[in-house]
Amino acid sequence: MRTSVIILALFTTSACQQTPKGERPPVTETQAIKIAEAAESTFTGNEPDRIMDQYVDGAVMIDAATANPSTDRKVQSGWAKTFVSMKPADFRVTDRHVQIVGPDAFVSSGVENFTVSAGTARPVVSARFTDVFQRQKDGRWKIVHEHISMPPAPTGTAG
């Protein structure tokens, strides 16, 4: 009798932990970091279309160099082309924060640093970013909202 109860309890526990048919398991923080890093790996290529493939059509994008957000794919593609024209390299994220906001969505934010081409110089640029990723019906992860801003200039005072 005791053996039957233990087997039944183990079966019930494992059945409760399985994902219902047709549903995907919820994203974990480790998976979210890998997904974000995969998207970011396209930023230093010379391929604006590959960059734009990381975003859903109609994504809200707020670029550091423009005053207004845009959902216009043509405008956003222009931003990607301008970014690529600066020949970004050495892309890295510091101080990343990941927030899981549901089984199919997460936020990745932090500070990104990369070098750009400015004549013969290769200055390092730092920007703050927030990317909201959502799993699409086909299982791919895409950015649905992005906000990029430049950090404020240091004031020289601690506080």
Describe the structure in your own words.
- The protein is globular and about 55 Å long.
- The chain is α+β, with helices and mostly antiparallel strands.
- The longest helix has 16 residues.
- Helices cover 29% and strands 34% of the residues.
- The chain has a five-stranded mixed β-sheet with strand order 1-5-4-3-2, covered by helices on one side.
Tell me briefly what this model is.
By secondary structure, the chain is of the alpha+beta class. Helices cover about 30% and strands about 35% of the residues.
Which labels suit this protein?
159 residues; alpha+beta; five-stranded mixed β-sheet; 4 helices; globular
Tally of DSSP β-strands: 5
- Rg, nearest Å: 21 Å
Major β-sheet, in short? 5 strands, mixed
Overall pLDDT confidence = 88
Q: What is the tally of helical segments?
A: 4
Strand order, largest beta sheet: 1-5-4-3-2
Q: Terminal Cα separation, in Å?
A: 67 Å
Q: What is the H/E order? A: HHHEHEEEE
β content, as a range?
25-35%
Summing up helix and strand content along with how strands pair, one would put the structural category as alpha+beta
Unreliable runs: 1-17
Question: Which word captures the global form?
Answer: globular
Helix content: 25-40%
